[in-house]
Amino acid sequence: MGRAFEFRKGRKMKRWSAMAKAFTRIGKDIVMAVKEGGPNPEANSRLRAVIQNAKAANMPKDNVERAIKKATDKDTANYKEVLFEGYAPHGIALLIETATDNNNRTVANVRSYFNKCNGTMGTQGSVEFMFDHTCNFRIPKDGIDPEELELELIDFGAEEVFEDEDGILIYAPFGSFGTIQKELESRKLEILSSGFERIPQITKKLTEAEMADVEKLIEKMEEDDDVMNVYHTMEE
């Protein structure tokens, strides 16, 4: 198996935020998708993807519809996606994805987490190159052979296709998202969820005590409502 498989396995073992936090993140994704491409999922591929993810997270349909309606209100603040970079203790690179309606607040918060946990906030581009920006899709197994599907989707950008207990996962470079989404939809294959991830090219093994130092910083980041994802180069 490739790096995407190992990365996914590590992420599954990792604790996930509370359901309310997941709903908050999806709500922001809905606002950004609607502001970008309108409230009609049929005409807005990004919104279609977010609705699929909401369904996968068991977010009530009423919540989704309310979020879409709220996003169409011109008084609703838009969220800007901002990437932060830096180092945790013991030389572990961190990449923090945020969605914020107040960049000054988010910058101040992220900087304070680095400072309180003996980390170092970096400049733009200081660690981003250490991660591959990927997209992924999850579809039902439904008797599909992952190896055959991988061969069929290579021409559309797929790099890794594998099966886990929840379905079949397809990984590709970030820029292939729209092409693969369109191909899966044209094949009438149900997309259970989709998204983007940053996979570290190289990871570093730490002792348990060192891992605890890094986890302390990651947890502080993840508790912030503006933070969507935290990626790192620590071996899990």
Automatic annotation (TrEMBL):
It is found in: Cytoplasm. Residues 4-73 form the TACO1/YebC-like N-terminal domain. Pfam families: TACO1_YebC_N, Transcrip_reg. It comes from Flavobacterium granuli. PANTHER family: TRANSCRIPTIONAL REGULATORY PROTEIN YEBC-RELATED, TRANSLATIONAL ACTIVATOR OF CYTOCHROME C OXIDASE 1. It comes from the Bacteria. Keywords: Cytoplasm, DNA-binding, Transcription, Transcription regulation. This is Probable transcriptional regulatory protein J2W95_001273. NCBIfam families: PRK00110.1, PRK12378.1, YebC/PmpR family DNA-binding transcriptional regulator. SUPFAM superfamilies: YebC-like (SSF75625). Residues 79-234 form the TACO1/YebC-like second and third domain. One of its GO terms (molecular function) is DNA binding. Coiled coil: none annotated. Belongs to the TACO1 family. HAMAP family: Transcrip_reg_TACO1.
